[in-house]
Amino acid sequence: VQLQASGGGLVQAGGSLRLSCSASGRTFSSYSMRWFRQAPGNEREFVAFISRGGSTSYADAVKGRFTISRDNAKEMVYLQMNTLKVEDTAVYYCAADLYGSALNRYWGQGTQVTVSS
Q1: Cα–Cα distances in Å, from 14 out to 9, 67, 91, 111?
Q2: Contact indicator for 17, 8 with CB cutoff of 8 Å
Q3: CA 25 from chain center: how many Å?
Q4: pLDDT of residue 93
Q5: Among 97, 68, 81, 101, which Cα is nearest to 1's?
Q6: Deepest of 26, 59, 60, 78, by most Cβ within 10 A of its Cβ?
């Protein structure tokens, strides 16, 4: 599967952005999807997960502010980010796990999110 993330940009603290990740190459519904992020000098960290059936989970740092969703017909996954904080600044990556297995994980290129104070 090929993944293409988009939607990043510069936003003020308290603002919102919606990231999108398009998938192509294989049946999208076969994949559970995740968003990760990596800030300068930090390791890549988990942000949000959505299962093939639509169940979701979030990192504590974003719970209540971010929402992950998917549209299998459009082969898209989204990350709605509200009440953004300066510490949300990072490169955001989408990842696809075939049949939910991290052993078969595919990464998209990142999209930069910068939150200014």
Answers
A1: 14, 15, 18, 19
A2: yes
A3: 19
A4: 98
A5: 97
A6: 78
Contact call for residues 84 and 16 (beta carbons, < 8 A) = yes
Measured in residues, the chain has a length of 117
- Six token digits for residue 90: 């990072």
Q: Tell me, what's the pLDDT at 101? A: 85
Q: Which residues of the chain have pLDDT under 70?
A: none
Nearest to 78 by CA among 17, 13, 12: 17
DSSP 52-108: TTS-EEE-TTTTTTEEEEEETTTTEEEEEE-S--GGG-EEEEEEEEETT-GGGEEEP
